Amino acid sequence: MVDCADMIVSVHIPKTAGVSFRTGLRQRFGDRLLLDYGDRPLSDSISDRWRRLRRRAEVHRQAGEITASYDAVHGHFIASKYLSLGERAALCTFFRDPVERLISQYHFWLHHSYPDNRMWARMHAHRMTPGQLASLPRQRGLYRLFTAGLPMERFAFVGLTEEYRTSLNLFKAMFDIDLPYHRANTGGGAGGDVDRRERSKVRAAQRKNLAIYDAARHRFDLLCRRHSVT
């Protein structure tokens, strides 16, 4: 068990079971869970870049208040945002096969409206295919973006969407925190209607994410062995 963590810092990478994990965290921590969804990591606009810098500086200034008021934080933010909380803040995140993740996001965006999201708007305005969406720079480097390029060993906990129940068992073994099993926000496409040619285009565009995913799987397997989770 990890006995040196005062706070869980959970990075929610889109379409990797983050909503399900958030539901469990909310039930476990209640008001001691800080939700952080205002950074818009997928946006490269000047205003959103400045927003992220300001909010990161706020975390640095309020580090003591945050750790006193909360036991966990979860949301769409870049992992390095909370490094100022110190080593006793345990970085956690889930990964998913990048091809399946991208296709799931594509179908989710087809059926849900996010007019303030420039990437969503671009996808619809240009009637992009999954392969075209996968080729956008911030989609090509999505895992590196959300993990801030940190080595996989910097993450205390790594879960896999494909092995979600086992991931929860690992989380319990590591932190002695038993989260209820939920599968939320799973609609929007499992990718079954994407033909082989289009799927190949997605895979070709997701090479960088696939490399990080392989490292994440290795980290997950190592942690499971270390904590005797099967």
What do these coordinates show?
- With 230 residues, the protein is an alpha/beta fold.
- The chain has a single domain (7-226), classed as Rossmann fold, CATH 3.40.50.
- It has helices at residues 18-29, 46-61, 63-69, 98-111, 118-125, 130-134, 137-140, 142-147, 164-175, 196-205, 207-226; strands spanning 7-11, 33-35, 72-75, 89-95, 157-160.
- The chain has a 5-stranded parallel sheet.
- The longest helix has 20 residues, at 207-226.
- The chain is globular and about 45 Å long.
- It starts with 6 loop residues before the first strand and ends with a helix.
Q: Strands, helices and their partners?
A:
Layout: E1 7-11, H1 18-29, E2 33-35, H2 46-61, H3 63-69, E3 72-75, E4 89-95, H4 98-111, H5 118-125, H6 130-134, H7 137-140, H8 142-147, E5 157-160, H9 164-175, H10 196-205, H11 207-226
Parallel strand pairs: 1-3, 1-4, 2-3, 4-5
> What CATH architecture do you see?
3-Layer(aba) Sandwich
Series of secondary-structure elements, N-terminal to C-terminal:
EHEHHEEHHHHHEHHH
What is the C-level CATH assignment? Alpha Beta
Percentage of β-strand residues? 5-15%
Integer-rounded radius of gyration: 17 Å
Strand order of the largest sheet: 2-3-1-4-5
Find the count of extended strands (DSSP E, 2+ residues).
Answer: 5
Number of domains: 1
Secondary-structure class: alpha/beta
Quick recap of the structure?
The chain is an alpha/beta fold. It is built from eleven helices and five strands.
